[in-house]
Amino acid sequence: MAAELGEVGAAAERVRDLSIGEIGVEGGEALELAFVEAANNVIQHGGITAGEWLDIALRSDGAGVTLELQDQGHPIPAHVLDEASEPGDAFAESSRGLWLIQTLMDKVTYTSTSGINKLVLFRRR
Question: What is the reported pTM?
Answer without folding.
Answer: 0.89
